[in-house]
Specification:
The complex is a heterodimer of chains A (166) and B (297). With 166 residues, chain A is an alpha+beta fold. Chain A has 6 helices and 7 strands. The chains are: A alpha+beta (166), B alpha/beta (297).
Chain lengths: 166, 297
Amino acid sequence: MKFLCLECNTAMQFKEVATPDQGSLTALFECPDCFAEFAMHMNPWETQMLKSLDVQLGGKSEAAQPMQMVRSFLNQQNPDNLTSEVPTVSTEGGGKCPFTSVVAQAFQEPETTGPVWTPEALARLERVPSFVRAMAKNGIEEFARENGHTEITTELMDTARGNFGM
Amino acid sequence: MKTYKDLPADGGSNIVEQVTQQANRLQQRLASVRHTVAIMSGKGGVGKSSVTANLASALGLRGHNVGVIDADINGPSIAKMMGVRGQRIDYGADGVKPALSPLGVKVMSMDLFLKDDETPVLWEAQTQKDAFTWRGTMEMSALREFLSDTEWGTLDYLLIDLPPGADRLPNLVDLLPNLGGTVVVTIPSEVSQLVVKKSLTMAKKLLNAPVIGIVENMAAYVCAGCGKTEDLFPSGHTEEMARQFDISLLGKIPFDPRISIAADEGNMFVDQYRDTPAGQIFFGITDEIRMFFERKM
């Protein structure tokens, strides 16, 4: 997909990914001539389609982990087949920039505004496999914010889990 | 107004470059695989995975380095048939190490990632509603990762057990531009062949790879007591289909309940019963495949 500034007849340039809202990702583009900006809101299915391609808007230097897409997005995995030491996959001529990190980063709110985790909830979060922990944490915090909770308890985690269809 | 082609690159979104890098990585990984063979049927329930597992093991028993990918992402069965369920997937220097069957065949399957027998393949998403819009892409990305993120090492043969249906074949063109060939599995019934013919047509039309031949599974029943062979279905249709599509009939595997029993136990029929009629035919098909590639070289 490419974007054209009709005013300048110039190709618009990707600028950044904005905070997703309920699964909808927003990409900002800017015209390099007139600096006009526009936002492209992707619906949840388009966002998911992008995720399923295992790519990141704008690219990123961070190297991918082996089986990044499968391990990040497969629900209910066998916990026994995971190892803690995960090497990164060489990016030389290969895939990089897992979309998961975009989502995680984009969902990231300043810590001061986030809901507070109870020790029990944090302990439970620690049991989530490391490679999806950040995504799970951000997803639960987002769920808490959307539903007006200032504290994340294990009960709220259960509710969020049910809401995610897990 | 400038058109799509007038605009340089992709405006910095970098998507095309990343997809290209994924393809390059896949190509690099498969550079050490001599022959990639897709096993397909079009029709479910013809015993394609069982045939794949036994052919892979027979190739291994013939001294080749062999790998198998279970491309049936939603209904993986290869891991159980090849006795690798429950094996831990460890990380190597540049990917994950595949599971290893008792006969030394390297295996990668979604089954190795799933929590338990009852767990279906369900992808994390904001909503599962209208999942048809992205689920197929997710599955092909998973298959791409199986191919490119597994430390296959040097392989003589990599067999890809495709899911039933012809709809995934076009995706293989992008994933495996250097596919060596396809083997089509059918059973003698006309209903099966009606569907398999569609897959054959699609394979011949879309894949840049030859059809190595057809395997007729469950071709007949061999009496365990007297050794007499009886047809299970009216025979002759597979020969006719092979003539129609101008491809080889690689072999007709008789029905033998021990094939199923061995698969359920994670044992390889071709290893345990290599001297039975079915065992001999599996090795015969294996040799046909080997000769196919030797003739090409």
